[in-house]
Design brief:
Layout lengths: L5 H5 L4 H14 L5 E2 L11 H12 L12 H15 L8 E4 L4 H10 L7 E6 L3 H9 L3 E6 L10 H7 L4 E7 L11 H11 L6 E5 L24 E6 L12 E4 L4 H10 L6 H12 L3 H21 L15 E5 L1 H7 L4 H12 L1 E2 L1 E2 L13 E5 L4 H18 L1
Parallel strand pairs: 1-10, 3-4, 3-5, 5-6, 6-7
Antiparallel strand pairs: 2-8, 7-8, 9-12, 11-12
Helix pairs in contact: 3-10, 4-10, 11-14
Length: 399
């Protein structure tokens, strides 16, 4: 049998899609499943954005574009990011791609070299693609634990101790997936102060949930003095305007923009042409739909967290942003007679008909840090109530 590469064999995945596939198989077999596993807003893309794409197609905008994106979109990115992050950037620092996710790989490729031991620090738990791409690009993964005892922030001393001459990139994600934690500006300043001692370390600031912050002001580390030049600021229209399937995102860095553009030329050629016009309309249009979504997510957050905390064996802090609740379930694991949150998630799926994600879906679980489940509340309150009712019945049956 002809072999495939070790690189292909070792490539990781985004576990929400793996669980979603399992959910769809169960549904196809007739099972009724309530899913909290996918992080996708349940709102329709606003009509004016859809109309912009339709008009673009009618105007013949269906061919290739410059790899960095069309001028109207890059101008819209500059205006939007300047407004929401309080930074000054130029259009030639902006590169648009097929969502934000490709820029994880592009950034690691751009700042590390294979077989030289270059290290990338990233949060654990965290978005699984970080570790997957660090390994795929031949860099050395350095997960930095986020613990509830530290409010799921990096321990700053641990961060400082992790830096060395081989460190090339530090990945930040705020609001954070899966915990929903938001890094405030004073904390980002402390990170910047630590990094100021190291001239060869870049920062990848992953900001797709920036519009969904509930109890404070959003801050980007790019807005900290002397951090803009070394920060790769990445965002997309996917979450903010409920455009996950439109696949348009962008990265901002003056030095790396030409590198990213060449990488896109080598891979996707460009983001979909009419979708770029839709994204430009989103970024430059009314913010009302975003505010409406944020207010609804905040209501759902308050609702699901309050209800989770009434369940035996479950404790859930109030997340400051995104649309994820990160519930501590160590006691529930004991009640269920399972060894960890992964086994508990399997039990909930097959016995209660509820799909959630567990610690192991977001990296290697930390030792002595408890067991957790992630609930996405990007779904109607009726669905939240239905799913938590099933979990409540499951727990009662355990008793």
């Amino acid at each position: 049998m002809i072999k495939i590469s070790e690189r292909a064999n070792s490539l990781g995945t985004e576990n929400a899609f793996v669980v979603l596939a399992e959910v769809e198989k169960l549904r196809a077999s007739g099972r009724n499943i309530v899913s909290f596993c996918i992080g996708q807003p349940d709102f329709p893309t606003p009509e004016y954005i859809c109309n912009a794409a339709t008009q673009a197609m009618a105007d013949g905008h269906t061919g290739y574009t410059p790899s960095a994106g069309i001028a109207p979109l890059r101008k819209a990115v500059v205006d939007y990011v300047s407004r929401t992050r309080q930074i000054e950037i130029s259009e030639d620092a902006v590169v648009c791609g097929c969502g934000a996710k490709p820029f994880i790989a592009y950034s690691i490729q751009a700042v590390t070299d294979r077989d030289l031991g270059h290290e990338v620090i990233y949060p654990s738990p965290g978005f699984a693609i970080y570790e997957s791409q660090v390994r795929a690009q031949g860099a050395v993964p350095v997960p930095l634990g986020l613990r509830e005892s530290n409010n799921f922030h990096f321990d700053l001393q641990e961060l400082a101790d992790s830096l060395n001459d081989r460190t090339r990139l530090v990945i930040l994600n705020s609001p954070h997936n899966p915990t929903g934690v938001v890094y405030e500006k004073a904390y980002l300043q402390e990170i910047a102060d630590i990094l100021s001692e190291w001239e060869n370390i870049w920062v990848f600031s992953d900001e797709p949930y920036h519009a969904f912050v509930y109890d404070c002001e959003f801050a980007s580390i790019a807005s900290i003095d002397k951090m803009l030049d070394r920060t790769i600021l990445v965002d997309s229209v996917s979450k903010t305007w409920s455009m996950t399937g439109w696949r348009v995102g962008f990265a901002i860095n003056q030095t790396l923009a030409s590198v990213f553009s060449r990488m896109i030329t080598n891979t996707d050629s460009c983001a979909p042409h009419p979708n770029q016009y839709a994204a430009a309309a989103a970024l430059s249009g009314s913010n009302q739909s975003v505010l409406t979504m944020r207010d609804e997510f905040q209501k759902r957050r308050d609702h699901i967290v309050a209800d989770l905390n009434t369940l035996k064996g479950v404790e859930c802090p109030l997340p400051g942003g995104a649309f994820y609740a990160w519930a501590e379930v160590s006691e529930l694991c004991e009640l269920a007679g399972v060894s960890d949150s992964g086994e508990l998630a399997e039990q909930l799926l097959h016995k209660a008909g509820v799909a959630v994600l567990a610690d192991a879906h977001f990296g290697t679980p930390l030792a002595n840090a408890g067991q957790h489940l992630r609930f996405s509340y990007a779904c109607p309150i009726e669905q939240i109530d239905s799913g938590l009712s099933r979990i409540r019945e499951y727990i009662q049956q355990l008793s």
